[in-house]
């Protein structure tokens, strides 16, 4: 059997003695979209940061397109676009200047900067200071940044946070277009309706562990309407009853 496009195996992360991620394995086919769902502090950002190579796992292995971070950091990073959940933009930089800065790091042309500005609808705001932007507009700058080098894998942490309904829809369409172009996407979200609309596969995390995963079509067959809401609720109820049993 051939190796999946992304194979993250048995990931553990411990920070200052606290286990944050425990035995997470995750596999992605090329050109697929995976949604990571779970409550606050479930470990979604930590898992995404490890796959992106910005945080090293305490143990476990991550292979993207046959490459490992520890063997060739530059090549590994070169095939990934990462959209963090938060970013401190420097003062005094316009949207265009920010994107030109990132484009320079990745050897991307000015024409591509203009393309991504247009994709996220910021052409007319490109010469405005990012520090004056709303949360949703800053998210669109970060989204544009992640697409700059047309990476094979896009890793996006809470990408729809702060987007208005129009941009939420546009975002969904843009990500579907990326998939159509053969790019793979993994994203975290609290918005289960977005995960249902966008993802092929969903992984639910709770307290740093995988508590359920499957194809969205399977969840639909199992639960009908609002399949991810229902699946999540069931998983949380199961978790609560297991905790209660363990206490007794
Ligand atoms: N650098 C760190 N030092 C200490 N604890 C950390 C650190 N980074 C993450 N954590 C802890 O790890 C847990 C998981 O955090 P993480 O940000 O991965 O969760 P999340 O699922 O993305 O949460 P949210 O949905 O609230 O963004 C949390 O309890 C968090 O406090």
From TrEMBL:
Q: What domain of life does the UniProt record list for this protein's source?
A: Bacteria
- What's a Gene Ontology MF term here? ATP binding
Which PROSITE patterns does this entry report, sorted A to Z? ABC_TRANSPORTER_1 (PS00211), ABC_TRANSPORTER_2 (PS50893)
* Statement: the UniProt record of this protein carries the keyword Nucleotide-binding: yes
Q: Which InterPro entries match?
A: AAA+_ATPase, ABC_transporter-like_ATP-bd, ABC_transporter-like_CS, ABC_Transporter_VariousFunc
**Which residues belong to any copy of the ABC transporter domain?**
6-232
List keywords of the entry alphabetically. Answer: ATP-binding, Nucleotide-binding, Transport
* Descriptive protein name: ABC transporter ATP-binding protein
Give the source species. Paenibacillus brevis
